[in-house]
C-alpha cells in the first residue's frame, strides 16, 4: 500500500502543479479582460474552486513528506524510546483527526450533491463536483496517515530513530 500511496501522491502533486498554472491563467485572462472593459464572468469563482482542489489534493503529499506544522523542540530532548512513542501517539491522533475531517468533507459533498448547491452570480457554478474532488484528496490523506502510523509503530518496535519526519519513506 505504501508504494501505491506514494505513486498516487506524486501524481496528484504533479496534477496540482498544473492546476496552479490553470488558476494563474484564469486570473491573468480575467485581469486582461477587465482592462479591456469586457470582464469574463465567473473567472474569480473558478480560480477559487481550483485553489480548493489544489489544497485538498496536496494534503496527502504534505503528510507523506512530514511538512505539516509540528512542534519538535520537546521531542528533540526526549530519550529515543519516549520520542518514538510520542511520534506514534501523535500519528494515531493525526489519523483520528484526518478521519473526522474526511467524514465532514464526505457528508458536506453528499449534501451539496443532493441539494445541487451552487455559487450564484452571473453564472451559476455547481459546488458538488469540486467537493467530490476534495473527497478524493481526503481519501489519499487518510491512506497516507495510516501508512505513517504503521511506519511510526514499526519504528517504535524496532527502536529505529531514522531522520525522516513522521515516517516518510520516500524523501
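Sequence proposed for the structure above (171 residues):
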Amino acid at each position: 500500500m505504501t508504494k501505491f500511496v506514494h505513486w498516487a501522491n506524486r501524481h496528484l502533486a504533479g496534477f496540482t502543479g498544473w492546476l496552479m498554472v490553470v488558476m494563474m491563467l484564469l486570473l491573468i485572462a480575467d485581469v486582461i479582460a477587465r482592462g479591456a472593459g469586457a470582464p469574463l464572468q465567473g473567472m474569480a469563482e473558478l480560480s477559487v474552486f481550483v485553489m480548493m482542489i489544489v489544497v485538498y489534493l496536496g494534503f496527502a503529499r504534505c503528510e507523506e513528506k512530514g511538512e505539516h506544522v509540528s512542534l519538535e523542540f520537546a521531542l528533540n530532548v526526549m530519550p529515543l524510546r519516549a520520542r518514538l512513542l510520542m511520534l506514534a501517539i501523535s500519528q494515531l491522533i493525526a489519523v483520528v483527526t484526518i478521519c473526522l475531517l474526511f467524514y465532514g468533507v464526505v457528508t458536506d459533498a453528499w449534501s451539496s450533491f443532493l441539494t445541487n448547491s451552487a455559487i450564484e452570480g452571473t453564472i451559476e457554478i455547481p459546488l458538488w463536483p469540486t467537493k467530490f474532488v476534495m473527497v478524493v484528496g481526503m481519501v489519499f490523506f487518510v491512506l497516507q496517515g495510516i501508512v505513517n502510523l504503521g511506519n511510526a509503530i514499526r519504528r517504535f518496535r524496532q527502536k529505529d530513530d531514522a531522520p525522516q519526519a513522521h515516517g516518510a519513506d520516500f524523501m
